[in-house]
Structure formats: structure tokens, C-alpha cells
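batch job 7 of whatever, protein = tRNA-specific adenosine deaminase
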Amino acid sequence: MELALAEAKIAYDKDEVPIGAVMVRDDEVIARSHNLKEELNDPTAHAEMLAIRQATEKLGGWRLTDCTLYVTIEPCPMCAGALVQSRVDQLIYGAKDPKAGAAGSIINIVDSPDFNHQLKIKLGILEDKCSNIMKSFFRNLRN
């Protein structure tokens, strides 16, 4: 999660919403990213989506079985759906997102028995650090 937080800090410094993501397989980092919506002018350029794209390129296929995604903030519905579609095994996230969370806060796409794939979920890892970078970013944005 420390690596994901480092990615979130990069986003923060670029005036992007500070969310970072790291994809791991067999204890090896295979992808890492941060939000780039503003820089790329792309509403799909979330940290999770970019990490998924990098991981599939590195592995040479769309199935990310045996992979774990570490992300600082609970994924939104788009990212949660992409995690299910890409067959990621586990999601580990730092802080909940009470406004857009789709891994337990508002809805739970990643663990829904209605889909053909479910992810294991672990949350609250470095929660204060993950939450505080978001709070700081939005406090500064309002000022």
C-alpha cells in the first residue's frame, strides 16, 4: 500500500485526485499508476483502470488471475466492474469512498454473487494515510 500511496502523491502533485494503484502478481509489482483524468482529459483514466491496462500489456492477456490490486481508495463502479471483468483475484484498499464506492460502501460489485467472478476484499490498510491525502487535496481545492 505504501507504493500505492506514493502513486497517489504523484497525482496530488499534478493536481489530480490523489488515488494510486499497484498490481501485484507472485509478489512482483507488474503495474502501478495514479489518476490522470485531468492530464489525459479522459474520464476513464482512473488509477485502477490504468494499472489494469499496464498489467494486461505486461502479461500479454486480459485475464489477471493470481493478481492483487492495491488501491488507496475504494474503487468506483467503473473500476470495480473492470476488476471483475479482468478476473483480478484480490482487491486491497485503504479507505472507503462513501460517495462512489463499489466494493462495499454504496454497492458491492466486486463480491456480488450475481456476477461470474468475485474478488477477495481486504480494506482499511493504511486507512488514515489514504484518507488524509484525499482530505488534504479537497481542502486545498476548496481554498
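notes: The chain is about 40% helix and 20% strand.
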